[in-house]
Structures are given as structure tokens and as C-alpha cells.
Fold this protein.
Amino acid sequence: MKDPCSFVFSEELLNYKFSSHHPFDQFRLKLTVDLLKKNHALNDNQIMTPRSATVEELSLIHDPSYIDAVKKAGDGQLPKEVAENYGLGTEDTPIFPNMHEASSLLVGGTLTAVDQVMTGQATHALHLGGGLHHGLRGKASGFCVYNDSSVAIKYLQMKYNARVLYVDTDAHHGDGVQWAFYDDPNVCTLSIHETGRYLFPGTGNVNERGQGKGYGFSFNVPVDAFTEDESWLDVYTHSIKEVADFFKPDVILTQNGADSHYFDPLTHLSATMKIYREIPKIAHEIAHQYCGGKWIAVGGGGYDIWRVVPRAWALIWLEMTENSNCYGDLPEEWVENWQKEAPINLPTEWDDPEQLYKPIPRKAEINEKNLRTLEKALYPIRNHQKSESI
């Protein structure tokens, strides 16, 4: 018997919009939902309408003065010099009308997914509108106003007394979530991302392991630029399995940025759709192995909204619902309908062609470097296991 699953979505989530030319474009949600519906994989009975997070819930993570600043900014009442102190009105995070309301809905969508899973109404829940992992306690950052994952984790602790494993596979380091729980031994964060040497936010080194009681519960695996599928999956598979076995969570929360793909315009990795098949598959296994199936998934980055994000994010839901109708051709109606609006040629198949790009000249060197990084990242776990076996 398949697990009951909830898909959190409303077109109001598209109101989180900085401008028509900003790379963060929630129109990708509509493309993904339509792909799933055209694939006969999502029906209205499975869709849960997101609620808005309350100020009290936002305050679990965010400073009240910052929440007030966001409200004023969205109403056009925050002076420019004050806004900049809060990371608002920048090139990355411009101010837009009703910013607080739109951002609160994104957070509330993730809390809706949490309640669905933790009350037993669903075993798995997906909220692709969430995953804004850069937001800090008192500052917007990297397209993120409020940090829905951080609020959700604190909510899971306060309301359900849960130990949470947070797994972030966005190409950008999940810094906001890491810092929010850096000293907390009941939250374990694992981020697999492109090295910060070339990419925002510049954090996520292997030596960022937590502090105080939280030391040893923060894991980072920064992979080298131009990393390809095989090496990326090797890092992901080993890290998530070993970290989960070490931490033994009550619930798993995965952030599913789709910006490690070769086509993504903001990153420098060389993955294909192969990794987006495996990411949710292994997370699904981990959830059942340690958490009684409790799995909450959110979206994240992903800036090729036509060719990459709809396919990658649809695969999460197809894995959750154990739907194998995700091979071969994409639904013809979906391709034909959206090709009229797309500025580029849409893919016609679920998978990428084998020769998507020219061979990477440094492949062997990159793979070896990633293996060494993985060994450093997991050293505390592996060293402890060796000590116990002696």
C-alpha cells in the first residue's frame, strides 16, 4: 500500500516575485504542477492550500524588529538606508509590494506540510514554494526574506519535540539553516553544495561542524566546480546514509534546490537529470529506515525554470507517490502548451541526452578532490566507528 502524500500549493505562492527580470521566478511552480497534472500524477484531492505563518511563528527564528521592517518595506514605508541594514532593497533581494504577506505564505506552506506529516494525515509532504535557506535571523539574503526551513525546524521542535535531520542539496550552501541551529544537538544539518570559493554565500566548508553542544551535528560537503553526476551522487549517497545512521532522526526535511544542473545560469556544476532521480529516492529510503516514513520536502534554488526545474521537482512527487510514469517522453500536451511561451526549446523527455555537454577535461582530478572532501566531512563519524571497533 502506497503512503498517503500531500502536495502543498496555491497560485498565491507566485506572489513572491521581486521583478520580471529577477532570476528567482516562482512561475516554475506553475510549470511543475502542470507537468504533474498532464502526467496524470497529481489530482486536486492531494493538493493542500498553504496557510500563512503568524508573526509568532516567524518569531521562532526571526527578530521581531526585522519582521516589522519587512512589513514596512512591503508597504513602501521603510527608508532606503534602514532597509539596507536588513538586507532589503538590494540587488539580490529587492523590495516588492506586500512582501511580508507573500513571504509569510511561503513559510506557512512549509508549516502546512509539517503538520500534515506530524499529525499522521500524510506520511510525506511536498511544498515546492519553500526552501528559502539563506534568510538570517535579522536579515534577508540571497533571494530569501524569511527562512521557512528554519522556522519549520523550530516549529517541529516546539510542537512535536522532534529530532530533525535537514538535508540540503541546493548548489548554494544552506547557510541560514546551519547558523540557526549551529549549537543545537537535536538538529543535524547536511549540505552538499558547490564550493564557496566561486559561489554565494561563500560558506559551507568542511570545518564548519557546529559549536558548543551542537558541535559535530553540522556536516558540509563542498564539491568542486564542474562536478558531474557520478561524483555528485557518490558524495550524496555516502553522506546522507552515514549522517542519518549517526543521528537517527525522528523526521527528515529535505531542501531540493535544482540548480546543480549543467543548464543552471547561476552555478558552475555539471549534473544532469540523473541526480534528480536519485536525490528523492535515497531520501525516501532514509525516511522509512529511521523516521517511520516522516519526510517533508521543500523546493529551493533553480534558475532554469523551463528545462530543469519542472522535471527535477516533478520527480520528487513521483518518488513520494511511487509513480513510475516518469520515463521516456514528457506529456506532449505540456510541451506543446508551454513551448509557445518558453524563450528556449523545451525538453521532450524526462531524462537528458547522454551527450549533454562536451567532456570535462579535469574530471579525474575533480572526482578525486571530491572524495577527499567527503572523507574530511565524514571523518568524525568514521573515526568514531573505527574507535568503537577496536
Q: What stands out?
A: The first strand starts at residue 5 and ends at 8. The two ends are 43 Å apart (CA to CA).
